Amino acid sequence: MFLFELDEQPLVAKIIALSDQLTTYIKLGRVKPNWTVDELLDYYRKYDVILDKQDLYNMIKQEPMSNFITNIQGDKVTFKGQKQEPALDSPPPAPEDQKKVVKQMAQRAAK
Fold first, then answer.
1. What are the strands, taking DSSP E only, across 8-104?
2. What's the CA gap between 25 and 81, in Å, rounded?
3. How far apart are the first and last CA of the chain?
4. How confident is the model at residue 6, as a pLDDT?
5. More confident position, 2 or 76
6. What is the rounded distance in angstroms from the CA atom of residue 36 to the CA atom of residue 78?
C-alpha cells in the first residue's frame, strides 16, 4: 500500500494502525492474547472506529486486515502468529497418528 492511498482512506489507515499496535502489544505481553469479537470491536470503538461484526468478518478475508487477524472461530479472534484452538467437536489425534508424526520427524532430522 502506498502512502497516498492511506491519505485517501483515513479510516483504513486508522484501522491498520490500531491493529498493528494491538498485535505488537500482544506479542510484548502488554495486553492479553485471547480476544473475543466483542472485545476487539470495543477496542476499535475506544479509538472512534465504529465497526460491526459483519464488517470485521469481511475485512479479515482481505488485506490489510488479513495481515493482523488470521481467523475468527465462533467468538474467538486469532491474531497472526497465534495458534488456532482446535474445534471443540474435533476428536483428539489417535495415538498411532502421533507415532507416525514422530517417526516422520525423526526421519527428517536424520537426513
1. 35-36, 69-73, 76-79
2. 13
3. 42
4. 46
5. 76
6. 9
